[in-house]
Amino acid sequence: MLTANAVDMLKDKIKLIQQNEKVIYLVGPIKLPVNLDGKTVTFQWYCWLQCEELMDSTEKIIDKLSSVNLAEMQQSSVLVYGDFKNAEDAVVRMHSICHTGDIFGSKRCDCGYQLKESMKMIVDHGTGALFYLANHEGRGIGLFSKAMAYVLQENGMDTVEANLSLGFKDDVRNYDDAIEVLKSLRSKQVAIITNNPRKMEALRKSGFDISDREPLWGDESEFNKLYLQTKVNRSGHFKGGQPNE
Question: What angle, rounded to 10 degrees, do the helices at 176-185 and 197-205 form?
């Protein structure tokens, strides 16, 4: 049951962001202590929901969301560290969800390593943000399709061939809503933690100023060697500090 007390607690924590014909509702900041290599680090956590319907009050938002099963949908979020809004220098990681790598620690990819390593890089830098993009599983094809792509990979295909064989493009991820949230949290330039030139292109096309790129390469093994080679050779990813020539 909706109470006036709950509305009062939430009204200053929900921000509305206009995005063309859609609306983004951003909730936060929320203190989130995280275990990072045995040390407790406190981030500021935000979560957002993209909707087609404009709800102009906290009461309407709560009433609407309580009638929708959001557990069957996916929402993205962002961890913010330090004075992200005002600091002169900040680093940003746009991290695509990887159920197998981030949760189970799969060695078929480098995603789990990249997630933890980018969090460490943000803390070491002093300020930054890690965007966790929940609708990006399998480069945007979804978890079930990713499982089928894995079957194809076990029969000799690389990641690009598998996605194409299932009727998808190599990479169907979209960064528009994440960029809008980024702009609402910071207007100054950022350095982006990535090996993927498409992420840099998406930020630059939006008009956001990128000061630098921080490479994120490691955790190579016999299990992900072909996966990493395909990223560089077929998807144009940078390896280490330099672009693939």
Answer: 60
- CB 195 within 8 Å of CB 177: no
E-assigned strand segments in 55-167? 76-81, 91-96, 128-133
Task: Please check whether residue 153 is in contact with residue 100, taking contact to mean a CB–CB distance below 8 angstroms.
Answer: no
Give the CA dihedral 244, 92, 137, 238, nearest 10 degrees: 0
Nearest by Cα to 211 from 184, 193, 226: 193
pTM above 0.90, yes or no: no
Q: pLDDT at position 71, please?
A: 55
Which positions are annotated as active-site residues?
Answer: 171, 173
Among 3.40.50.10990, 3.40.50.2000, 3.40.30.10, 3.50.50.60, what is the CATH number of 4-136+173-233? 3.40.50.10990
Q: What is the pLDDT of residues 123-175, one digit of tens each?
A: 999 999 999 999 898 888 888 788 878 878 887 888 888 888 888 888 889 99
- Residue 225: phi and psi, rounded to 5, are -60, -50
- Separation of alpha carbons 103 and 124, rounded Å: 23
| C-alpha neighbours within 13 Å on the C-beta side of residue 241 | 0
